[in-house]
Amino acid sequence: MSIRHSLLALLQDQPRYGYQLRVEFENRTGSTWPLNIGQVYTTLDRLERDGLVAREGDDGGGHVVYSITAEGASEVQNWFAAPVERNNPPRNELAIKLALAVTLPGVDVQAIIQAQRVASIRALQDYTKARRDTAANQRTADTAWLLVLDSLIFQTEAEVRWLDLCEARMVQQAQSAGPGAVRKTSNGVTEDAAPLTTETRR
Amino acid sequence: MSVKGPQQVLELAKVSRTFGQGATAVAALRDVDLTIAAGEFVAVMGPSGSGKSSLLALAGGLDRPTSGGVFVESTPLAGLGLNELARLRRRAVGYVFQDFNLVPTLTAAENVALPLELDGTAARKAGRQALDALRQVGIPELADRFMDQMSGGQQQRVAIARAIVGQRRLILADEPTGALDSTTGHGVMEVLRARADAGAAVMLVTHEARHAAWADRVVFLRDGRIVDQAAAMHDPTFLLTQAGL
């Protein structure tokens, strides 16, 4: 996450001092990514060094107020205009854990998947509840927080769908491994023979 | 095993359901214990064939268990004759199906009023209650439309209105968002959530995690057994505190 660009974007809105930037950032993102005040000051120093912000002086209360320069404003524009770079591929502890689990003997992968599914659904319940409660309040300041919650909801939902897929793939593998390994459901029907997408699970 | 009380709207006690006999018998549900209290919204998740729909059918008295007991507001369904069962279903239980099951030759209001009129409620009173139910699902202005004059999302809202009309205490929904786009699906969840918040017991069968997440409790079925449950935090401020708000 680019703290540098986030702070610049907030300064484009209006001149602010360090603590205000931190509060503003956390308010607008639902405090999902808490900012350390030390990080804020270090970042401001670098932005000043690079000519992207300038000190406006004291606000009278002992706070150093920063404002954005023309170069800073164009940097913000470029940031908003460019798509977010993807790490390649992003590190995903769950994917790593499952990849290792399926290749190591004696690991109950289905139990791992189910434990994760319960935890993910619980998180999804909490996000959904927070979203509902926030939406019910209908304060304009909550719009940013709602968007962050939506993002978390979509990510978690994708995680659950991916877990379903992992499980289906494993069942499929077990089936192709031989009739002895075929896992049957309670009604005697083997799991969908081609459950490669979650849509086929209807 | 939980204690039966007035709060308990639905109770399944050691319920098993087997189809067929002998060597070809298949157990759809095995020793399932599940209770849903008034005001509680429970989602049931599980892969195809895990017993989700069987569970819903038993809960609504559409099917009978091979062993174990089903209680709706403490009334054992096993003790009811067919007529009494039908009466209970009309009065206390509302169903929402994936394919709506609406009558095309009736208007929205007439569809919603139908279970009340079948139960002997006077037409005017039934009409008033139907309009109230349509209001709750946000489409009172569509009361006089026929099914072919409505979108899929609107028809599903009519189906939900029919399920909640007359303040039913138990609402059973089987993949009610199946045919709908995600915005409309969200609307359906809002209505079910609102009914639970108003005191109804709601049971939703779904494979969509984002819909199950609206529930107070998510029950996971596998091979006819409940293998896990996930409950939301009862205090949503926890999340905010955790996030530092």
TrEMBL record, chain A:
Renumbered residue ranges of the record's region Disordered: 176-202
Lineage: Bacteria, Bacillati, Actinomycetota, Actinomycetes, Micrococcales
Native source organism of the sequence: Pseudarthrobacter enclensis
Name the UniProt record assigns to this protein: Transcriptional regulator
Gene3D superfamilies linked to this entry: Winged helix-like DNA-binding domain superfamily/Winged helix DNA-binding domain (1.10.10.10)
Record-annotated Transcription regulator PadR C-terminal domain positions: 91-169
Transcription regulator PadR N-terminal domain ranges (all copies): 7-77
TrEMBL record, chain B:
Pfam families registered for this protein in UniProt: ABC_tran
Molecular functions (GO terms): ATP binding; ATP hydrolysis activity; transmembrane transporter activity
SUPFAM superfamilies: P-loop containing nucleoside triphosphate hydrolases (SSF52540)
Cellular component per GO, a single term: membrane protein complex
CDD domains: ABC_MJ0796_LolCDE_FtsE
Alphabetical keyword list: ATP-binding, Nucleotide-binding, Transport
Superkingdom assignment: Bacteria
InterPro entries referenced in this protein's UniProt entry, alphabetically: AAA+_ATPase, ABC_transporter-like_ATP-bd, ABC_transporter-like_CS, ABC_transpr_LolD-like, MacB-like_ATP-bd, P-loop_NTPase
Protein name: Macrolide ABC transporter ATP-binding protein
